[in-house]
Design goal:
Layout lengths: L10 E8 L2 E8 L7 E10 L3 E5 L4 E10 L2 E6 L3 E6 L5 E5 L7 E8 L4 E10 L3 E11 L9
Antiparallel strand pairs: 1-2, 2-3, 3-4, 4-5, 5-6, 5-7, 6-9, 7-8, 9-10, 10-11
Length: about 150
């Protein structure tokens, strides 16, 4: 997670397809401080469907749906990928549901190529742990701006 708070924080998101999946590199640039980088990879699993793979082999299967023009990604639990068995299946250590938060991301297309990204991480007992919202747009090649 991002270890700071702020408003109007410049951010750059790079999305690149790789052999492992689609890699999302996010860079948050607080004025007067070093950038904070967050990386995850989205993969399609034949059993779990869409999975967000985080550092330390932490994986988050996602439920994906559309409602009122907004695309939603909601965590369906968390597990550690402990590697593959001889038969090729992944050994998973699921974390108990009562210990893990729910992550909910909403993506809403707006006008002129802009979109709103909102992420909320909420623990069943501790409440909201993380909140982020922002407007983003795809940078046109050669435009030179963030």
């Amino acid at each position: 997670m991002v270890p700071r708070t702020g408003t109007r924080v410049p951010a750059v998101v790079h999305v690149n397809p790789t052999a492992a999946g689609v890699v999302w590199n996010r860079e948050y640039c607080w004025p007067g401080d070093s950038p904070c980088q967050v990386r995850s990879t989205k993969v399609i699993d034949p059993i779990e469907g869409l999975i967000e793979r985080l550092p330390a082999r932490l994986c988050m299967p996602l439920r994906v749906y559309e409602a009122a023009g907004t695309l939603h990604f909601v965590s369906r639990g968390y597990y550690f990928d402990l590697g593959r068995r001889r038969d090729g299946t992944i050994r998973k250590l699921w974390l108990p549901a009562r210990l893990v938060p729910e992550t909910h991301v909403a993506h809403l297309d707006e006008e002129a190529g802009w979109f709103r990204f909102t992420m909320r991480v909420t623990h069943p007992r501790a409440g909201e742990l993380f909140f982020q919202t922002g407007r983003f747009r795809e940078q046109v090649a050669g435009a030179g701006s963030r």
